[in-house]
Amino acid sequence: MDIKGVCYDVGRVYGYEVARVNAGRFGPPVFDPGTTRRELQIIRDDLRCNAVRFQGRDITRLMTAAADSA
Q1: What is d(CA 58, CA 29) in angstroms, rounded to the nearest whole number?
Q2: Mind listing the pLDDT tens digit for each residue in 41-50?
Q3: At a CB cut-off of 8 Å and minimum separation 6, what does 26 contact?
């Protein structure tokens, strides 16, 4: 079986942004489960991928995205 996949970012915070988030100046990017479901559907149907690697720091977002991918 050939594997064709993508990395799906559920919202990461990079470098200097970590300190600003921790200081309460702004939060991580908005996470919408409906948008995630739609994007995963596009990845499956339009891009014809059969593998997705999720990455991010928020376990709730990771679990939600993983459940929607099944």
Answers
A1: 11
A2: 999 999 999 9
A3: 20
